[in-house]
Structures are given as structure tokens and as C-alpha cells.
Amino acid sequence: xxxxxxxxxxxxxxxxxxxxxxxxxxxxxxxxxxxxxxxxxxxxxxxxxxxxxxxxxxxxxxxxxxxxxxxxxxxxxxxxx
Length: 81
Fold this sequence. Notes:
By secondary structure, the protein is an all-alpha fold. It has one domain (about 1-80). It is about 85% helix and about 0% strand. The chain has helices at about 1-15, 25-40, 40-55, 55-80. The mean pLDDT is about 90.
């Protein structure tokens, strides 16, 4: 779930940088790509989010993992020649 949410957050941030396409259109296409990438349906994602929202301690662990992974990615980018 951490990687799904991380991709969603990156997609939403990326959609804000595209000026010629409506954000909703762009985000929807990103969501569809992410669903295919992780082999999940919109319904499954929504049910998972309901579960994690009801269990904030687990959600906090997921976001800790996201933060860790994003820090790794940032370090990789900063060390590129």
C-alpha cells in the first residue's frame, strides 16, 4: 500500500505541473495507470483506504515507509552525475 500511495502522491504533484491539461483529466489517467501497475481496482483501493483510515496507527507506519522511500529517491537524484 505504501508504494501505491507514494505513486498517487507523485502523480498528483506531477499533475499540478502540467498546465495544458485539466488536472482532473490528468489525475484520473494517472490513477488508472497506478491501478494497472499494482493490479488493483478502484473499489479495492477505496476499501483499503477505509480500513487504513480507521486504523491510524497502521496508516502512520505506511507513511513512515513512504517517507523513507522518498528520502532514498531524493538521495539517488542528488547523487546523479
